[in-house]
UniProtKB/TrEMBL annotation:
<comment type="similarity">
    <text>Belongs to the ustYa family.</text>
</comment>
<dbReference type="GO" id="GO:0043386">
    <property type="term" value="P:mycotoxin biosynthetic process"/>
</dbReference>
<protein>
    <recommendedName>
        <fullName>Tat pathway signal sequence</fullName>
    </recommendedName>
</protein>
<keyword id="KW-0812">Transmembrane</keyword>
<dbReference type="InterPro" id="IPR021765">
    <property type="entry name" value="UstYa-like"/>
</dbReference>
<comment type="pathway">
    <text>Mycotoxin biosynthesis.</text>
</comment>
<feature type="transmembrane region" description="Helical">
    <location>
        <begin position="35"/>
        <end position="55"/>
    </location>
</feature>
<keyword id="KW-0472">Membrane</keyword>
<keyword id="KW-1133">Transmembrane helix</keyword>
<feature type="region of interest" description="Disordered">
    <location>
        <begin position="1"/>
        <end position="21"/>
    </location>
</feature>
<dbReference type="Pfam" id="PF11807">
    <property type="entry name" value="UstYa"/>
</dbReference>
Length: 252
């Protein structure tokens, strides 16, 4: 019996297999061009970001502070405000990292003592110093080329805080603080000024530091943890600058 003969059937062309067609070649060239463009744009974007970060790191901090303290646009009747850009010769943007202390034996806590008074006086009795309109860059001083006395707000804030603390030991300080020798009305007028001034200062600064809360055995409510790292302005640096430029009020 003769062996059957097999013949290959003519395969039907696959409609999807058009890699040899001109349309597929055009599509592939278009895709390859787009891919090149994406890679090039990605490289350029990466270089631009790196360049911006490098420039930011190398801009002097004083320039950054000046830029941050330019005229601010505000809503309302008064449309602008010019902030004090910092002390001449002192870097106002110098920061340090420190932790707050809740030490019950802090020198700034009672009961009153000579050591406590010295600690408060060290951070309160600072200044004033001479400053001019051009040096301060502020619109808060008169248009007068002659130097005028000024001081940093932090020292008045500390003065207010010290006065409030001393009032809690009124019997001890009533003969040691001139404010407490005045009438009860005058005393409370000064204390009310201090409270409201400190309120405005705290709200102005709006400290954004996080205070974690944790449970402690024996406490119904969560206890705040104040001992966390904070970024603070260099108070000692500012104090040293003011002391260096301090005006001697006792000079004739």
């Amino acid at each position: 019996m003769a062996s059957p003969e097999y013949q290959l059937l003519n395969a039907k062309p696959d409609a999807k297999d058009d890699r040899g067609s001109s349309s597929y070649k055009q599509w592939f060239r278009f895709l390859r061009t787009d891919l090149y463009l994406i890679v090039i744009h990605t490289i350029l974007l990466t270089l631009s970001v790196a360049l911006l970060l490098s420039i930011r790191r190398n801009i002097p901090d004083q320039v950054k502070d000046d830029l941050c303290n330019q005229t601010l646009s505000l809503e309302g009747e008064h449309a602008s405000q010019l902030n004090f850009p910092g002390l001449p010769g002192y870097h106002p943007g110098r920061y340090i990292v420190q932790r707050f202390s809740n030490d019950p034996h802090s020198l700034y806590r009672g009961p009153p003592s000579n050591e406590t008074d010295k600690a408060w006086d060290r951070i309160v009795k600072v200044g004033p110093f001479n400053i001019t309109m051009n040096a301060s860059g502020s619109n808060q001083t008169p248009d007068n080329p002659q130097p005028q006395m000024a001081n940093l707000a932090v020292f008045h804030q500390l003065h207010c805080l010290k006065t409030l603390w001393q009032y809690t030991y009124f019997d001890y300080y009533k003969s040691r603080n001139e404010i407490f020798t005045k009438s009860e009305t005058e005393i409370h007028k000064h204390l009310d000024h201090c409270v409201d001034y400190l309120r405005q200062a705290l709200m102005c600064q709006t400290d954004m530091s996080i205070i974690p809360l944790h449970s402690v055995e024996g406490h119904d409510l969560s206890v705040p943890s104040y001992d966390v790292p904070r970024t603070c302005r260099d108070f000692e640096g500012a104090r040293a600058w003011v002391l260096e430029h301090e005006v001697d009020l006792e000079e004739d």
